[in-house]
Amino acid sequence: MDRELLLLPADRPPEMVFYDDTWVYTTAAIAGSVMNGPRMYGKPLQWKKNRHSDTLTLPDGQRVPVGLMSFAAPAPDGRSFFVMAVPAFWKAAGIESSAFTLDKMLTGVFLHEFTHTRQQKSFGHLVDSIERVHTFREVSLSDDIVQGYFKADSDYVQSFREEIDAFYTAAAATDKKEVKDAVRKGLSLLKARQAKYFTGNREILKTLDDIFLSMEGLGQYVAVYWLMHPRGGRVNRDTAISGFRRKRNQWSQEEGLAMFLALTRLKEKDWVKYQFNKKPRTIVELLEQESRDRF
Questions:
Q1: Are strands 80-85 and 15-19 parallel, antiparallel or unpaired?
Q2: Quick one: three-class SS letters along 29-96?
Q3: How far apart are CA 30 and CA 48, in angstroms?
Q4: Contacts with 131 (C-beta within 8 Å, 6 or more apart), sequence order
Q5: Residue 218 burial (10 A CB sphere; 0-12, 13-18, 19+)
Q6: What are phi and psi of 103, to 5 degrees?
Q7: Relative to the CA of 32, which of 50, 106, 213, 290 has its CA 20 to 30 Å away?
Q8: What is the pTM of this model?
Q9: What gap in Å lies between CA 210 and CA 289, rounded to an integer?
Q10: Are 210 and 284 in contact (CB under 8 A)?
Q11: Residue 241 — pLDDT band, cuts 50, 70, 90?
């Protein structure tokens, strides 16, 4: 994915924490017995294992109970770290996919979250800077913050669903004019929604909405791209998309995926270069640019 889709050079790996029901396997600087483990970018990593006693110590110093998790987060030194339960843990928890194998689904989950470790210097940095100057008392700051504020508002939800439908219409279209028309409709609905609901002390949600649609959408798209790839999951496009949407109940992932799928109907991989630099361009900005008429 780094070489073919994201076009990223090798970078210093994030600290990684994997675990099952007994052991934690990690490259983080915590105590443990040295063990053999996979390389990254062709270079060896220092892996350790230790019994976790139902509690994980994370690279940022937090201690959390063992449960079903997969996430990336910023580390105190400015890098990222990555946490994920091993496949056997997911299987024991009863997680499965009706669209493809559990291993394929979990590879998609892994790729989604691991993509976030590469976004820390771009969108992740923007989120950190917002958190330093804004206090969020009603809903904690996360990629689900907009959903947390508005999930109980039926009018908001209805308009939001119409917006998502427009972007998935664009993603499914093959004629470029049809794609552009559907993208323009989706963007119009998105901007109207943000203007109506993100006012007063919630105005910052507009910026966060655009950021998290970009972060979560790219994570979803990377997973779907791998699932469709002949050297990846080898799943047909419709199955990959519908299967990875799963319950469709995480708003930023659901809409973000549709927006990136629509973008790739309009533009080749050129858009990737804007996702990882210090001044990234959001998926909203990219779709606005590509849906304009050019003469």
A1: parallel
A2: CCCCEEECCCCECCECCCEEEEECCCEEECCCCCEEECCCCEEEEECCCCCEEEEEECHHHHHHCCCC
A3: 8
A4: 141
A5: buried
A6: -60, -40
A7: 106
A8: 0.95
A9: 15
A10: yes
A11: very high
